[in-house]
């Protein structure tokens, strides 16, 4: 089974599987045009040659339009078109695949990822929810559904998803991410810190340093917050959000000049000025910056 991986801007696009369509073909049998084109598409995807992969799959579909395996090819074609930057066509292609196999978790998952990458959060949320209805143990859908529920302030669903993951997938990185998000998102900042710490044992990602730093700030652990902000800045020195956090840290350490310098740097790097105003001259308040 061949595996093709694709990456999007908001969430990471997971592995895409090409079904072993030729598994039953005799080794001595002359390979058909259909399977030749599938093989060409597979190899093109492995090399990131998306235009060539698209052409090969289209030719395969034309060669055997009635082949029942075409639904998988159409789903893969949708992901290929997404990688080509043809977002609207990718969604339309995945919609076609879904209409052919409405209970396919693979197709729903592919469509949800493309929808999410294009900002169709409500539609992606519905696809992830449908996946969970079809397969409650599909953790790749459970985590994003949990995170979307938090954004919708549907704390009941988010907490339910987190608890399900803790019961069925203890120790999994997805479970730790859900725990950190739900606890920090519902104001339990002290409770979120151990989750972030376990995540950071596996993933030295600035997002998680930043999340833990925020929790440390809210619980008064200023040195720990400083360490995490510095660790994150070492990885992404142009992250304005981190400078805003450091402005808050400097304010709490009674360093208004340093707080203002960091706030101005945050604005320079794209942070909304209204979020940094409290750290500017004569406007220092006791309010922590709200997370995006």
UniProtKB/TrEMBL annotation:
Top-level taxon of the source organism: Bacteria
GO cellular component, one term: cell outer membrane
UniProt xrefs under PANTHER family: TETRATRICOPEPTIDE REPEAT PROTEIN 6, UDP-N-ACETYLGLUCOSAMINE--PEPTIDE N-ACETYLGLUCOSAMINYLTRANSFERASE SPINDLY-RELATED
Transmembrane segments: none
Name of the protein described by the UniProt record: Tetratricopeptide repeat protein
Species annotation: Duncaniella dubosii
Higher taxonomy: Bacteria, Pseudomonadati, Bacteroidota, Bacteroidia, Bacteroidales
The keyword Repeat belongs to this UniProt entry's keyword annotation: yes
UniProt keyword annotations, A-Z: Repeat, Signal, TPR repeat
Signal sequence coordinates: 1-25
Biological process annotations from GO: receptor-mediated virion attachment to host cell
InterPro entries from the UniProt entry: TPR-like_helical_dom_sf, TPR_rpt, Ycf3
């Amino acid at each position: 089974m061949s595996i093709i991986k694709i990456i999007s801007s908001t969430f990471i696009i997971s592995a895409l599987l090409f079904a072993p369509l030729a598994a039953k073909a005799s080794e001595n049998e002359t390979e058909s045009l259909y399977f030749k084109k599938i093989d060409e598409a597979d190899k093109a995807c492995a090399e990131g040659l998306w235009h060539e992969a698209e052409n090969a799959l289209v030719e395969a579909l034309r060669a055997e339009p009635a082949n029942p395996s075409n639904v998988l090819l159409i789903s893969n074609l949708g992901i290929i078109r997404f990688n080509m930057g043809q977002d609207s066509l990718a969604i339309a292609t995945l919609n076609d695949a879904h209409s052919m196999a409405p209970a396919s978790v693979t197709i729903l998952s592919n469509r949800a990822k493309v929808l999410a990458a294009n900002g169709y959060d409500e539609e992606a949320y519905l696809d992830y929810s449908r996946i969970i209805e079809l397969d409650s143990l599909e953790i790749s859908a459970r985590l994003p559904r949990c995170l979307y529920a938090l954004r919708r302030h549907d704390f009941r669903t988010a907490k339910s998803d987190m608890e399900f993951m803790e019961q069925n997938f203890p120790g999994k990185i997805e479970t730790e991410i859900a725990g950190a998000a739900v606890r920090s998102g519902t104001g339990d900042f002290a409770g979120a810190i151990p989750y972030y710490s376990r995540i950071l044992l596996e993933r030295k990602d600035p997002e998680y340093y930043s999340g833990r730093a925020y929790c440390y700030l809210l619980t008064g652990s200023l040195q720990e917050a400083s360490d995490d902000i510095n660790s994150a800045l070492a990885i992404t020195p142009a992250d304005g959000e981190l400078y805003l956090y450091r402005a808050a840290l400097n304010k709490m350490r009674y360093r208004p000049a340093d707080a203002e310098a960091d706030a101005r740097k945050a604005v320079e790097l794209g942070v909304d000025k209204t979020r940094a105003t409290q750290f500017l001259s004569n406007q220092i308040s006791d309010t922590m910056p709200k997370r995006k």
